Amino acid sequence: MGAATGAMARAGVLLDCAPLQPPAAATTVRVRDGETLLTDGPAAEIKEHFGGYTLVECADLDEALKWAATLPAARVAKVEVRPVVQVVAPAEQPAG
Amino acid sequence: MFRAHWWAAVAAVTRQVGDLEVAEDAVQDACAAALAQWPVEGVPASPRGWLIGTARHKALDRLRRERRRADKEAEAMREEWGGVAGSGLAMGRGGGAGLAGPAPVSATGWAAGTDDELALIFTCCHPALDPAAGVGLTLRCVCGLATAEIAAAFLVPEPTMAQRLVRAKRKIRQAGIAFRVPAREDLPARLSAVLRVVYLVFTEGHLAAGGDTLIRGDLCDMSEGPAAGLVILDTVGGDTRLARWPQLHIARAELLRRLGRRAEAVAAYEAAIALEPPAPERAYLARRMHEW
Fold this sequence. Notes:
The structure holds two protein chains of two kinds.
Chain A: H1 3-11, E1 14-19, E2 27-32, E3 35-40, E4 52-56, H2 61-70, H3 72-76
Antiparallel strand pairs in A: 1-4, 2-3
Chain B: H1 3-17, H2 20-41, H3 47-81, H4 116-124, H5 131-141, H6 147-154, H7 158-175, H8 187-215, H9 224-237, H10 246-258, H11 262-274, H12 279-289
Helix pairs in contact in B: 1-2, 1-3, 1-4, 2-3, 5-7, 5-8, 6-7, 8-9, 8-10, 9-10, 10-11, 11-12
């Protein structure tokens, strides 16, 4: 765990984080008409690639932006900040 | 008559219902209702209170309707996702919540709810928004300009501007931009974003006037630009916590200068100098003060 994620963990905002293997290791999966199609390489055909993720629990965007700025990736690459959409799991729903 | 209450009403309702878009639409509806009702029943004792109360009612009504619809959609989604939903999904309390409920009181921030109008302008001028969109949003939510007027100022078709405003409001909700005055340590950075927008509001006013002179000289009204900027600055600067930033007074001074209000401009320059900005800036201000 790096210094930035360590600080996130101590602050109690870190839920999960991990770097990813390089895009060359990616396999893209599509299912069309019931058939599974595999393609070597990443899904997005752009120069930038998704290098890893850091999942933090914050009250608002400002708090998340501050944490994002502490990540080393923000200095050498870029960090995109986007909230997770809350999807309520069926088990959490009241019966009926 | 409504424009005087617009800012306060949009701000109060946004805090109460937690959604800028819903609040703004509701205030618009409340104004329409007032236009129909007041001439018949008379103007209420507190027009602002009436507008806020009516708008709040309409906003909560709409949110209830939308929640019912969202429940139905969620149900459909659950059926589609079957048993796997939730298992691989991370959940964050900030996720998708946007301006969820009343803003919390953070350890470093100020008590929420006491500064709705300031919170509204800091939200509209958030650095995470495209600055041009921030200007449009400020003209709409703070100054109460109609979308058509803002579109004219930016020299774009009305649907284009409407789309831009919708996108900005959606970003506020989806990105989780908080409805509150920023914490003290964040103020310098956030205040400069506000000043940038105020400056653009002012230049857009000029540009629009300039555009109009080219096309329709009869509509040219140069005073709209600096005057609109001044209204915002005076509200922001009226707050003692913000009044100690020299930049605020410098911006005021420049706007007052454009309006030809010399004595007030000089007083604003003096206020800025009294706050002891860096020496070169101070020297410039002392010089500028006497340039007429």
